[in-house]
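Thread title: Can someone regenerate the structure for this chain?

I was given the following input by a collaborator and told the matching structure tokens would be attached. They weren't. Posting the sequence so someone can regenerate them.
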Amino acid sequence: MSTRAVLEVIALDAEDAVAAQAGGADRLELVTDMAADGLTPPLRTFTAIRAAVDIDLRVMLRLADGFAAGDADRLVGVAGQLRAAGADQFVLGFLDAHGGVDLDAVERVVAGLDGCRWTFHRAIDRAADREALRKQLADLPGLDTYLTAGAAEGVDEGLPRLLSEARRHGDPGYEQTILVGGGLRLEHVPELRAAGIDAFHIGGAARPTGWDGAVSEEAVRSWRRTLDRAGDAVPR
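Best answer:
Regenerated them for you:
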């Protein structure tokens, strides 16, 4: 018996969300403005998507391009508005000017989430010291996932690190789920699944016509089939 891998798809609107769920997505990451690598969506977008689908939603908390937190008080306020509208899972990650985790900003925002589950996003791939970052964040409430390609350049470059980190699962700082995304391709899946990685994140790969086009139900279904086949092949 295989263990179903989590497939998370980026959704920009309700149309994307419906197509992704129909194709077999387990969870959506909600963002706007992919030209800035994904910012917090408007509240009305969240409420429209929440009404359109019944799978898990993780909402980006990021107000400007780059990995600086900016106005942490504003982030806390935005998170509070989203929570009041029903959001209960989030995505965030802030670095300081030296590539270290901005622990003060992360802690302030996480305190406002009051225990909600959250992902530390690909800021980890830009960190000066990934292991130090993991250890600094290890005890924060709600942190259950790292979205990572293993390297800033993407999964092609980061694959060895992803496999190494998967082997450390359960060690201090490595208890969280590895959610692989960033240049992820279907051909990466069998090796990652064989290593025990069971969470995958796609954005552009779900949109055959590019970011100006909508999520394709069939593209998502192709990923779902590949993940399920790879899972069936993993020894138990």
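The chain has a mean pLDDT of 96.
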